[in-house]
Amino acid sequence: MRTAVALRRQHWWLTLIAACLVLAACHRSAPVNGEDPGWVERSDTRHKIAVVFVHGIFGSTRGTWTDAHGESFFRLLKNDATLGPQVDTYAFGFSSNIMTGGSPDIREAANKLQSYLQPSGVLDYPAIVFVGHSMGGLVIMRYLANNLDKAPALAEKVPLIVLFSAPMEGAQVAQLAGLVASNPALSNLRPVDSNDMLKQLSDDWASLAAKPRVGCAYETADVGGVRIVQWGSATRVCDGRPVAIDNADHISLVKPDRATHPAYMFLSGQLTEHVLPLQMSAQLELPDFQRDENSYIFTLGAPEENVRLMNTGRAHMKYWIGKKSSRSLLVSPGASPQLINGNSTELLTVTLRVDADENAYEFTLKSDLPSEQTVRVLVPDLSRLRTGHQRNAIKVTTGLAQYLGDPANAEKIAALQHDPDQLNAQLAAVAHAALGEPIKRLPSAEQWLLTADLLAAANLRSIASAALAQSAGIDAFYLQAEKELRDKLLAQGRAELLIRSDAMDWSHALPHAGHPDTPLPAAQEDQAPSMPAIPVWLDTVAYRESSLQLVRNMEKVASLRQDAASLEVATLKMSAEAATAKLQQVERQENATQMQIFQSPAAEAERQRRSEIERETRSRAQRIERPQLR
């Protein structure tokens, strides 16, 4: 009995001495790690893969990875014919005092790691691989568990972590070493059964939606007769078979002295197999387009369609539209460069305006990749395109008619009676909302341009002008289309004035409005405005019914009656004589209404009140001036 107790005491003391030896061995390597994190090898042009090394407890930023003769993982990677041209190396470190305070625990070290990666430019790399020794592996896991689910872009950039004897279930020797060294990090390395920090890390790691591959290597020799990290602890979360490093204890495990050292062979093999095959650069793909010898082809079956633009590489890229063949074609985003992250998808919106009358269009898709892509947009069935525009026009006229006819809006409309600009802005917003789904993926200014385009085609000129006013700040690519639409609205306004004044011989006017698919040259607009008329493609029974219902509801609003008359003229394609009679009739009615208002008792009382105020004002002024005259 006494012999057994003595043997247990002897074993306990030997283990404690071993722990002291471990501390002493680590202490010889780095009494205090005061070396800041930083790049060890970094190409001027920046390679595709950043390899980040994180040392363990009582290790040092670079010394942990370097043998007594100066050989290191860093030098071996740089000189590797395959990996050298692909890899830049970064060494991360934290304070590592043995017998004194000031050393961070795993959580604190992970937070420090996070604070260094972005400013150092590590997170700008297409691929990032973390390599951890001992507690450094737990620091890496804690950092990733904190961030991967919150930052999908980071998860895509980290395909692999490599762990050398990371004590995922803790280490018994840490509990004993805690008796001779006061260091908060040691408590983080106690066996998992009595270690809440490791339990939490295990749960957080398991719950990650997307985890990198974990490659593991472990020690095969003891330090002072003690295996610092047991096999089960070093291999708990590994993918694939863990690798034993021959004749290596916990410290020499990560000090390779040659390119054929087992530790270096393991790391280089993991990089070669699981990282190099990945597409590191940006890679542009257009899955919704067909490909011919010289260009991509997209067949458009509706006025607006969204198509996918994919970056299947790991690096981000910028893209923009270089040029396009017609002002009738809108491709959004336009000329302003847009960013698409690696392994991400964005949408291009391809749109044809109401005056589009060709079966083929073309634009150039440019990016910061070496090549540009020519895209041909085919419209094999123009009638189908017209049907889509008709459907949108009916949505707009129906939406406006319902808004004006809804009793719930009567008070608001009445309040805007004497402010036509505000009333038309409100109606433009109704038209914009009525279009809804077809334009919602466009930038706001382009949405308003298309809304105004459709309103102008329907001869809702005042509302179209209010909508066009909302397109300020539109992409420079579409300024010409905006100017063309503004000129069209001005021409409609001039035509209406000429009709009212009966000052135009319309028998010589160009029949442009009846056939608006061919834009009128700007030089001819001043000499020959066209009769207001809806375009041929919009001249359907369904549209005329919705438009005339809108006319009836607009007529109920005094300030909209002239616009209602113009819309009726265009919808029914009235002759010049009938149009003149209609517009002049409404103008006479408007003048009569204004005269009645002017001659009403209320108006007379208001004039008398103003007159009395003026007389009183003059009288006061005279009383003030008299003393000065004396």
Automatic annotation (TrEMBL):
Segments forming a coiled coil: 569-596
Pfam families: Abhydrolase_6 (PF12697)
Cross-referenced InterPro entries: AB_hydrolase_1 (IPR000073), AB_hydrolase_fold (IPR029058), SERAC1 (IPR052374)
Bias (Basic and acidic residues): 604-630
Alphabetized GO MF terms: hydrolase activity
Domain AB hydrolase-1: 51-213
Lineage: Bacteria, Pseudomonadati, Pseudomonadota, Betaproteobacteria, Burkholderiales
Alphabetized UniProt keyword annotations: Coiled coil, Endoplasmic reticulum, Hydrolase, Membrane, Signal
Signal peptide from the UniProt entry: 1-34
Major location (coarse): endoplasmic reticulum
Organism superkingdom: Bacteria
Region feature (Disordered): 596-630
Protein name: Alpha/beta fold hydrolase
Subcellular location: Endoplasmic reticulum; Membrane
